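Bumping with the actual sequence this time:
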Amino acid sequence: MQRRSARLVSTLTLLTAMAVAFAACGSSSKSNTSGTSGGSGSTTLSLVAYSTPQTAFDAIIKEYQKTAAGKNIKFTESYGASGDQSRAVVSGLETDVANFSLAPDMARLVKAGIVDASWNSGPTKGILTNSVVVLAVRKGNPKNIRTWADLIKPGVQVITPNPFTSGGARWNIMAAYGAQLKQGKTADQAVTYLEALFKNVPVQDDSARKALQTFTGGKGDVLLSYENDAIFAQQKQQAIDYVIPDQTILIESPAAVTKTSKHAAEANAFLQYLYTPAAQRIFADNGYRPVVAGVAKADEFKNPPVLFKITDLGGWTEVTDKFFDPDKGIVAGIEKGIGVSTSK
């Protein structure tokens, strides 16, 4: 009997360990219960976001829970590659507030009836934060990487995530492509540039934050990155610098409350708080460019000589079909040519 009991305990212990390990897979998630929330009358909101703004949201949530509107609000948070997060919400991941790295991931929720089609009708067109694509380099920039042309030189390793899972990767690619056009090159020449660029990419992680970890871990000479991710790495005492190329794209990250939220009033109150100067200041402290006037300090963020938008390249609907269709898109063809998966 003792042996049988021992075997039973051992089996239960093993199953518990397996369950914990399984739960740890996929996008990162956490529960934030700081502040005075708790007990009867409290509400829990589910925040689902792309991989990079976790530190900013952690700080914002703590401040929000000190306000009258937020004192009885708890949060669960989930972070991961933007495309993966968007598809998870469509598949049933409970979500009250969503923040993705690009508009098509929000459009997927609109198509599924989860987010209202008017999500982008406000003063900022639904955009919560801005950033720009930069070239993150090793401290001191030992390979003297300054321009887009430097990225396709022989022997230069470029780190960028997989564009079929990561919204950040799509911004990187369109920054590189658009920069060629702004330099006066033809569309065909810009595509040829992308082909040369991807030959210098040794690995493609599934999210921008994982790509940053790969780079700070020692792989690669330059990282195509959100400016805020480069600033985040510097704040964490990582030995990197970054260069804003003369031509780059403005990154616009959307946020919205879901129609399926069981706590619409509380979710909308939190979304409104994200646009207050206090919250936008926290975003700025974490490297994001505020979308609210007067929040950024003088000379806090520098603009390149040419700063273009995705609308200058046709907008996300046209760009997604032309470049990122997994079967016929330009980037899909490039990826397949070098043996990289385009499955989502």
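The tokens above came from a reply further down the thread. The first strand starts at residue 28 and ends at 32.
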